[in-house]
Specification:
globular; alpha/beta; about 45% helix; single chain
């Protein structure tokens, strides 16, 4: 976990540049977003030492209940476009710290931040398959969500997004008794410049992004 955090910090400017080019944040704000993302990893690193079980007094005198915390298995994560770095480190960091593997689907509008983080994850020395990134178009998003909720190998779904979608995912996860983590109902406004496609902006779609050079 520390090595991944160190890799991100070493490429702080590159990641911030990707975030700015892909999302439109001012560069200084993108730098803050990278720092915010690494703060989660630094915190989870310290929490790894606290994932032991608990000893709980039982109802019958003299007896004790001993609990052992074990990884769940595969954790699926769906992250939003408005915070493409911190939302990934927060979800992935928690899952990895607890010993799980992760399949992460970033927002269709901001896949490059996720790919860059995964590349640095690989450079940190993690085995292939521990962190997996699945990208797709907006049209393909429902199919990925369906695969996450229906596959019995996925034991936990973490989602940040709208309340209606969260309700639907939670309902579908109940069919296979998956655990869920939901952060719902936030607003993510964006600025529409004069040269933008107004019709697409009204529909909440992203106009064609500029070509982004390899920065990492």
């Amino acid at each position: 976990m520390r090595k991944w955090s160190d890799e991100i910090k070493a490429h702080r400017d590159d990641l911030a540049a990707i975030c700015t080019l892909e999302l439109g944040k001012p560069f200084t704000e993108s730098l803050g977003a990278v720092d915010y993302g690494t703060s989660f990893l630094d915190w989870f690193e310290t929490e790894i030492e606290h994932t032991y079980g608990d000893t709980i007094p039982a109802a019958r005198p003299g007896n004790k209940i001993i609990t052992i915390r074990e990884p769940q298995g595969v954790v699926a994560a769906i992250t939003p476009w408005n915070s493409p770095i911190a939302m990934i480190t927060r979800k992935v960091g928690a899952a990895i710290a607890a010993g799980n593997t992760v399949v992460c689907k970033p927002a269709p509008e901001t896949p490059l931040c996720a790919i860059a983080l995964a590349k640095l994850f690989e450079r940190a020395g993690y085995e292939p398959g521990v962190l997996n990134i699945v990208t797709c178009s907006p049209e393909g998003t429902p199919a990925i969500g369906k695969a996450f909720t229906e596959d019995k190998l996925v034991r936990h779904l973490s989602f940040t997004g709208s309340t209606p979608v969260g309700k639907m995912l939670a309902s579908e996860c109940g069919k296979t008794l998956k655990r869920i983590s939901m952060e719902l109902g936030g607003n993510a406004p964006f600025i529409v410049f004069e040269d933008a496609d107004i019709e697409k902006a009204v529909q909440g779609e992203q106009t064609t992004p500029r070509a982004i050079p390899p920065l990492i």
